[in-house]
Every structure is written in structure tokens, then in C-alpha cells.
Amino acid sequence: MATSERIPTNLRTLLILEILGKSDRAMTATEINETLQLPKQTVHRLCATLEDNGFLVRRGTSRKYQVARRLREMGAGLLHNSRDHIFRHQILKTVSQTVGESVNYVVPEDTGMRYLDRVETDWAFRIQLPVGTEVPFHCSASGKCFLASLGPTARKRMVASLTLAQRTQATHVTADGLLTELAQIARDGFALDREEFMDGMVAIAVPVKDARGRFIAALAYHGPTPRMTLTDAIAQVGFLQESAQRLGDALFEPNERP
Predict the structure, then answer these.
(1) 88 vs 31, 32, 76, 214, CA distance in Å?
(2) Contact 114, 168 (CB under 8 A)
(3) Hey, which residues does 207 pair with through a beta bridge?
(4) CB within 8 A of 104, min separation 6: which ones?
(5) Contact criterion met (CB below 8 Å) for 141 and 192
(6) Could you identify which of 56, 81, 116, 201 might form a hypothetical disulfide with 50, taking C-beta atoms 3.0 to 4.6 angstroms apart as the criterion?
(7) pTM of the predicted model, to two decimals?
(8) CB-based burial of residue 136 (10 Å sphere; 0-12 exposed, 13-18 middle, 19+ buried)?
(9) Is 60 exposed, middle or buried (0-12, 13-18, 19+ CB in 10 A)?
């Protein structure tokens, strides 16, 4: 798109959102406009409007924009109401039937990891964490899986911003301890919750990635320690990673890949 005349007025806002959605970093209005080639004041005005209405947010006091909660919720809603939700839920059901525990599809939000989809185990004795539940980044398998997906510099900055509240005796309460484990998770490709979030519960999570290899969600399952051990969980890593790949393929079909 070399000239502004080629971009209909009602499409410009969507293209700004698309550019930011595909970027792995925050961007200034000028950087966004390198693709659009619109009048500078137009892009600045549209970004300001999106910020005022909760679709974009600026990082601190900088001029760089990134997607905000309202836009992420809209994206999640679109996925939920599409056939992708059906595919995703069926894969979660298959995982749950294989591992015999509750399985979750968990996405990062501003204040923690949120359960976007879930399949409950048939066991009468189970831990209730329904869809919509938020769990902390630092003491959940899915949260640590997300943190480990960040580059080393961004990971350190993110951990420094967290309040490492102690939920159990096993919770990481120092940044150094958490960062050491996150580096190991990045190497291993899976994260464990060793009763860090809740006494008597263990969990495992693997990343679900988009077509560009970026983290979009965690595929996780948990269970009570009388029935599930960490050894059991680690034995399922290969199956979980294959299932996460299937989820990525279901959400990003080959003819939809950029």
C-alpha cells in the first residue's frame, strides 16, 4: 500500500490493529506508518482514538503502542465463537481422556494467566478452577510457561515487575530463583507446578505457538497429589507437545499463515 488513497477510510483502523497484532514489540505511530504510508497526523489521530477507547495502550511514558485488554478480549471472543473453538475443545477432550485429569487452555492477561477453555476430569475428587479463573504468573505451570517464552532481557524485566507472593512453602519468592527455573523451562519446553500455587496440586504446561513460533497460550493439566505425580506428568510431555502442535495447526491453517 504505497499511497493513502488506496486504503479506504473505514479500513485504516483495522490495518493499524493488524500491524500491531503481528508485531512482537510495541511500536510508535511513525513505525506503524512505515507500512501504511498515510499522512502522519492521520495515524497519530487513529492511534490516540484507539488508546482512548481501550484497544491500545502505551508502555509507560513512551510513545510506543501495544495491544490492550479490550482488543485481546475481542480476539479471544472471535476465536471462541468460531469453528476454532470447536477444534480446540475437541483436542482438549482428547488430552483429558488420555491423561485422566482436567485440561486447560490458558492465555496471558495483564494480571495473570486466564483459563479460556477447559475440560473437566470425570473423577469425583477434582480441583475446581473454572473457565475465567486467573492464576499468577510466578507460581503456576502455565504462567511460568509464558514467562519462559520471553527473551532473556524481557523475561528479567517481567519478573522484576511481579509481586512474588507466597502461596505455599514451594512458591518462588525471589527473582533469582524464578529466573533460574525459567531458563531451564525455556530449554526443556515444558513447565511444572510443584505445589507452588496450591498445596496438594501439581501441574504441567507446554506452549501453544502461532505460525511464527510466538507463544499464544499454554496447554496445561493439573491434578491432586494423591492421584497425580510429577513423574506421571513428565511422562506425558511428548503427547502434550504433539497436542499443542495440533492446537496451533487448528488455529492457524496453512492457507491462513502469513
Answers:
(1) 35, 32, 12, 18
(2) no
(3) 218
(4) 92, 115, 117, 118, 129, 142, 218, 219, 220, 221, 222
(5) yes
(6) 56
(7) 0.68
(8) buried
(9) exposed
CB atoms within 10 A of CB 152: 11
Contact 162, 135 (CB under 8 A): no
Contact 116, 106 (CB under 8 A): yes
DSSP string, 61-110: TSS-EEE-HHHHHHHHHHHHTSHHHHHHHHHHHHHHHHH-SEEEEEEE-S
C-alpha cell at 202: 501439581
**8 Å CB contact between 140 and 127:** no
Q: Closest Cα to residue 15, out of 41, 57, 50?
A: 50
pLDDT at 178 over 60: yes
* Cα–Cα distance for residue pair 186/181, rounded to 1 Å: 9
Q: Grid coordinates standing for 59?
A: 508502555
Amino acid residing at 251: L
What are the angstrom distances between the C-alpha of 245 and each of 24, 29, 162, 238? 20, 34, 30, 11
Give the integer Cα–Cα distance in Å for 246 and 134. Answer: 25
Instruction: For 200-248, write each residue's pLDDT tens digit.
Output: 999 999 999 988 888 989 999 999 998 999 999 999 999 999 999 998 8
